[in-house]
Write a structure and sequence with these properties.
mainly alpha; extended
């Protein structure tokens, strides 16, 4: 029953939501809108479960003084402080002059920017490895990357003969081959999402139930 009931509910709800694309009746749309609102409520409940899971996983490690327990303690303290301040200040917490707003602007935003700044070095390292002309495909990628980078800096525009043509060629690369490749990736991702959704609805994919 623990597996059968969720599979049956998933099948009927999934098929009902798919019917929205084929049944244009307004009453049907109202019912699917209610289903979507229930989904938002369930997503909020999942955040609460994630909070308890975070405490369940990290708090014992802090108590046992496992390796890097100080970082986990700092994370838990920041979590508690943010929650307490957010609930205490209520709906006005995001207005200027409030502690919650200061925590977000003066601490979270700089830390977030620092994380993405560190990612830039990993991206540069990955680009260096990817741009080695080991074969024809890598050579084409390397040439395209060099053209785009040169066209976006003043040095490229000042090159003799080709300097005026680089921005035009770069725009063509970004608008034609790049867009075509992105659309192909999006189409593949959409087909994969549809296939995964059908596997879940039909009960073929059961990993969300704890199965293999």
């Amino acid at each position: 029953m623990k597996r059968t009931v969720p599979l049956v509910l998933t099948f009927f709800v999934g098929m009902f939501m798919i019917g929205e694309f084929f049944i244009p009746h307004y009453q049907y749309r109202l019912i699917t809108a209610d289903f979507l609102e229930w989904g938002v409520v369930l997503a909020a409940a999942a955040f609460v479960l994630g909070l308890f899971n975070l405490l369940q996983v990290n708090l014992p490690k802090v108590i046992r003084r496992d390796p890097d327990w100080g970082y986990k303690l700092l994370m838990l303290v920041a979590l508690v402080v943010t929650l307490v301040v957010g609930f205490a200040e209520g709906s006005a917490r995001q207005e200027p002059g409030h502690v919650y707003k200061w925590i977000y602007d003066a601490m979270f935003v700089p830390l977030n920017a620092t994380m993405f700044a560190l990612l830039a070095f990993y991206i540069a390292s990955a680009a260096f490895r990817a741009f080695r002309a080991r074969n024809i495909d890598a050579a084409i990628l390397l040439v395209a990357a060099v053209i785009v980078m040169l066209a976006r800096v003043p040095v490229g525009e000042s090159l003799p003969i080709v300097g005026d043509k680089l921005p035009q060629f770069m725009n063509w690369l970004m608008d034609v081959p790049n867009i075509a490749a992105r659309r192909a990736i999006f189409i593949g991702a959409a087909l994969g999402a549809v296939a995964t959704g059908l596997r879940v609805i039909l009960g073929i994919e059961r990993s969300h139930l704890g199965g293999e």
